[in-house]
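Q: For a teaching session next week I want to show students how multiple molecules come together into a single three-dimensional assembly. I've collected the sequence lines for a complex. Could you give me the predicted structure tokens for the whole thing so I can convert them for display?
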Amino acid sequence: MNIINFTLVSALTGGLLIGLSVALFFILNGRMIGVSGIASNFLVSKNNRIENFLFLVGLILGPLIYNLISGKEINISISSSLILLIIAGTLVGFGTRISGGCTSGHGISGISRFSLRSIIATITFMLVGILTVLITGIL
Amino acid sequence: MNKIVSLLCGIIFGIGLVISEMINPEKVLGFLNIFRDWDPSLAFVMIGALIVSTPIFHLFKNKNKPVFSSNFSIPTNKELDKKLIIGSIFFGSGWGLIGLCPGPAITSIALLNMSSAIFVISMFIGFYLASKVN
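A: Of course. Below is the structure for the complete assembly, covering every listed component.
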């Protein structure tokens, strides 16, 4: 194993902001953030629909505001095929709702609560993610 | 106020994903590529977030009520069941295929990237399917 592209300061800074968002949402609105929960509840439930929608709008405004303030371009590259995008997106959507959380809901909010469910979920999806990258790297 | 808080928290969360570069799937795949060239950044995003969210949660969880809402809503499910494991396996495999999870995927809509838009639409189809199973 070689360590490459490690960006400690920006990782911690971004992480602190994500933690701040989770903390504020809890203190002020009384709920723990899980993006998959918020997004899927926006789709299938009438409860808190406007709040959930506004949170998602906020997520999308995030990069635009960052770009406006810093003047820095944000570039991402995804080189996967259409069919792979559809399969992966469906797996992520279906899986997170069956298990009740994603990287934020289990990985951050759940672990903050010391939830055993969330700790087990996080270990499982990370191990499976690592295994998937290992296998697709060999193929 | 609930609505303003939701929008504001979304913005802060989204900026956090941009600064930490978790919006970039290659960065996430670099973290999952632990056996070859490993980029540990994602672990430190989680540590940064947990340093803030953990003490705040435990300081406020026993308060009467949140500032702008009538009561706290904290998940009560403690069951370690098959759904938890199977769902996490599905999620982990989809995550490892592209490097996108729900937060970064939705946030990346701002970049008008066609691939992430297709991923997000598929993810919402997955949400819908799960709501029929659950």
